[in-house]
Design brief:
The structure is a homodimer. The first copy, chain A, has 2 domains: 24-111, Leucine Dehydrogenase, chain A, domain 1 (Rossmann fold, 3-Layer(aba) Sandwich); 139-268, Rossmann fold (3-Layer(aba) Sandwich). The model of chain A has no long low-confidence stretch (mean pLDDT 96). By secondary structure, chain A is of the alpha/beta class. The first copy, chain A, is 40% helix and 16% strand. In chain A, the strands form 3 sheets. A 5-stranded parallel sheet of chain A has the order 5-4-6-7-10. Chain A has a 3-stranded parallel sheet with strand order 2-1-3, with helices on both faces. Strand 5 (183-187) of chain A pairs antiparallel with strand 5 of chain B.
């Protein structure tokens, strides 16, 4: 079974569109501030996709585009402006930021209530503590869990193996799987005999950014495989000279997996759908608090 | 090899005692506020041990003892008072609190800077994000890591299996082990075939509160075993009618383990030593900021 992230993401966008259409007309709509520094091609693509998704569902967006050599202070000031802007309910800083910028400091400056990427220490802390009611969660991990749920894939009691332990994907995803009562093993670049561990997985989630690393002999029969990787590999036959692949060798692994996400069209669209959802949730919390 | 937590904890206390003795005499000493609600015998024992440890190293302590039926509001007010008390640098709420109290709300009310138990969402978030410079960490996980370090037990690249996923021990400990580049598997009450996982452990840490659950056939030869459990079991031959045991059947497992903590005398004394250390760290941060 191929897990169709495109279809699920579209379903979520349609649902958000309906919800937003029903909001009080006299109020301003949900708004997303997008901060983009420099001209990275991949970042520009992601920002374009996010803006298109906002348009589709009825979220107002405002892009703050800054040159590659912007100073830390100027960037901080832009975020302070967005923090206090009443038309903005969510703030997205497109990563990576240039090397001369202190990324942690910038991410920390986004107000907790507008932190739709779920990077603020207090949001991260509440996620760790399983206090999920009022917390903005990182979009990719949330999207992975949502995919499993939409396909009625049981998490409780299953052995979930996560490859990668980044703050943005692997770590929060591992925590969410634990909160859902999976047995969780986290592997990474220092893991020895990694195949021995991945072969135990009922649910294998890879977020390590190694193109097609995971082969058929890494997984057991019937495993559910979620591929978070987005890697570009050279391909002379492709129009642009490259193609996008996941961390999983899809053609090799699909025969053994009971369910598997493709790349593209798996986790990717879910990440954007969750960003929209977080923005709407932030908007709702804001309106509840200011009532 | 038996890991001597008593000796390591004593060493740490001696070191803290020297450090405190060297602090500027004109300043007030480090101070710990201890909030104890009700009359639980085990809680009273822990509080007594903590006060004794404070006395030994030269930390001022002030106990706020409240009756079992104290209201949420009154308890909150006591914490607000401690938050603003300039003689107090760390605040410890002895758990568990009575059922009518919202424990989460109480723990959240402790100011981040005085949160020597490491329960505040922002401290938890920074721990999750591996920003450990300025963070107060939960005492028991910190004590476990310190024991491994003092005995020069390598963590990086090892397979660490943690039993239990509580917010106080299992979860933060798993995160710390990941930050130290261990491969980490987290097991708990919903884990199936738990022995198959624990038998893979290079380092096995149990924090599940099941008396002597872990037998020799749960561990592989040469495993390092850290036992966080403190369980009382009936024993007619004991003076008090019970004795304290860990989660590990010590006599059964010790032959196979390359290193093992006893209970009592393993992790327990380290928890208190780390509380003292956190209090001194909070004191130092406070003094640095107010300089």
């Amino acid at each position: 079974m191929i897990i169709d992230g495109l279809a699920i993401a579209k379903e979520i966008r349609n649902q958000l569109k309906e919800e937003i259409a029903e909001f009080d007309n006299k109020q301003i709509p949900p708004g997303l501030g997008i901060v983009m520094v420099g001209n990275r091609v991949d970042s520009a693509t992601y920002v374009r996709m996010k803006k298109r998704a906002c348009n589709e569902v009825g979220i107002f967006h405002q892009e703050v585009r800054l040159s590659e050599d912007v100073s830390q202070e100027e960037l901080l000031q832009k975020i302070v402006d967005l923090n206090t802007d009443t038309a903005i309910h969510g703030i997205l800083i497109q990563l990576p930021l240039p090397a001369h910028i202190d990324t942690n400091k910038i991410l920390k400056s986004v107000s907790r209530e507008k932190d739709v990427d779920g990077f603020h220490p207090e949001n991260v802390g509440n996620l760790t503590l399983n206090r999920l009611e009022d917390v903005l969660m990182p979009c990719t991990p949330k999207g992975c869990i949502e995919l499993l749920d939409k396909y009625n894939i049981e998490i409780e009691g299953k052995h979930a193996v996560v490859i990668g332990k980044s703050s943005i994907v692997g770590m929060p995803l591992s925590l969410l799987l634990l909160h859902r009562e999976a047995t969780v093993s986290v592997c990474h670049v220092k893991t020895q005999n990694i195949k021995e561990i991945t072969r135990q997985a009922d649910i294998l989630i890879s977020a390590c950014g190694q193109a097609e690393m995971i082969k058929a002999d890494w997984v057991k029969d019937g495993c559910v495989v979620i591929d978070v990787g987005i890697n570009s590999v050279d391909d002379e036959n492709a129009k642009r000279g490259y193609r996008i692949v996941g961390d999983v060798d899809f053609d090799d692994v699909r025969e053994k997996a009971s369910a598997i996400t493709p790349v593209p069209g798996g986790v990717g669209p879910m990440t954007i759908a969750m960003l929209l959802k977080n923005t709407v949730n932030a908007y709702r919390s804001h309106n509840t608090k200011t009532k």
